[in-house]
Design goal:
Elements lengths: L1 H36 L5 H35 L7 H7 L1
Length: 92
């Protein structure tokens, strides 16, 4: 149970950090786009900011999956489980 709980907590913290990183990447993209429109930076800067945002969004999505999986592991380690609706009905 300790391992499952530690994994959940670590991934939960990582997900929170990735959420902040995605927001920072959005702001970076906005700034890069504004600077490009004003002729200050080349378009490759905008493309790089878009790539970075896509990567961080992908990492956030994977982290969300991991948090869910880790939470299920915590639940199972505490003795929780799932019963199929048909199995539960058959038992009654």
């Amino acid at each position: 149970m300790d391992n499952a709980l530690a994994s959940y907590r670590t991934e939960h913290d990582r997900r929170a950090a990735l959420t902040r990183t995605v927001e920072a990447s959005r702001m970076s993209l906005q700034l890069a786009t504004d600077r490009y429109r004003k002729g200050i930076t080349p378009f490759v800067t905008v493309l790089d900011a878009e790539r970075q945002l896509a990567q961080t969004r992908e990492q956030l999505a994977q982290s969300t999956v991991n948090v869910t999986t880790d939470l299920i592991a915590v639940y199972k380690s505490l003795g929780g489980g799932w019963q199929d609706d048909q199995a539960a009905t058959a038992q009654n």
